[in-house]
Amino acid sequence: MMYKIICSIFLSTAIWASTPALAAPQKLDGIAAIVDANAILDSDITARFDVVKDRVPGGILTSSIRRQILNQLVEESLQINYARKLGIRVGNSEVDKAILNVASNMQTDINGLRQRLAQQGIDYARYREQIENEILIGKARQQVVQSRISITEQEIDDFLANQQKNNQSKAEYRLRHIVIRAKDVADTRAQIEEIAASINNEQDFINQAIANSEGQFAIQGGDLGWRKANELPKLFTQAIANQQGPLIGPLQSNAGFHLLWVVDKQSQDVALQQETKVSHILVRANEIRDDQQTQELSEKLYNQLQNGANFAELAKEYSEDQGSTLQGGDLGWVTPGTMVPEFEEVMDLTAVGDISAPFRSQFGWHILTVEGRRQTDISDKVKRTNAERALIAQKRDFVIENWLSELRADAFIDRKAN
Questions:
Q1: Domains of the chain: residue spans and CATH
Q2: pTM for this structure?
């Protein structure tokens, strides 16, 4: 299966070709926008669309989709500039690890990844630069969230009391979102009300999100995916509780005016949390051992375990998980959602005392053994940690939106006519 790989190419000028005498110059590429001293090209937009078109409703590069992609590229450029001004750096080892994870997800090694990039006409050096930029943006956002969000002990107390009262933690919502930033409050209110009046079903909402929303997921029809109720802004959860859906809003916040579409809702009726005592052996592909050889090594170790070899001793000798190797692969008591889905699925299907066959995750090839299971109430410390994370998640989207608005206001942005 051919995998499509994002690789936006930022160049500082438009490209023109010289043609024979008496012929008019032929434009090969055009400038879509200037962000400070950086240019975003028409080819950047086309390249990004080729990657995301399977996730774009309709799958056609309409003028609205083009505008949303250009907005994404402008915001990426602003965030990269911000990170570099603050001296945020990405080490070669971080980029190497990220690329290895990409290769692992594609069930190949570095050489196989290079070949697939070449087949798609993507230069490896430029691909590596794009991966570095994505990590850079992630670090910048993390720094902004850490510096602008502070959770007090009183907030945690109030959150836990409210959660217990309303049983909020068990609800999850599948949402779509439209946000219009309030440059002029009266005009923006009128605009969001006009949009709301035109929405009669989910497809209408998707179309309006693509055409008008200034949110991070506009190009996907405003799709936020599944969100836990306790991780949503209070503005959203209160409105969902008080208004008859599926269309919720308009709602006003510091970020602007919002509309929500409640696609679905589900509840989790789990009173106790299951924990699993598990150990594992992890082997990874590397520069001298490709993925096929790594799989063969995991199968060899599995056969040794089936013939009575000691799991902890093999883990100490072969496992490449730095966090558990010295403990003989012991991961301790694992709670749901802690491990990657592939690991958790195999762990849940493995009986106590059994050893799993080798299986693959983004980190490499695993063998695990389940040593015990228990039902336990979450400790107060864990509850408070989870509450703090949920409170940060409630505030994060608004904080990032406000930060991006500040970046746009302070930057020189010149969008060219299409």
A1: 16-148 (1.10.4030.10), 169-270+393-415 (3.10.50.40), 273-376 (3.10.50.40)
A2: 0.53
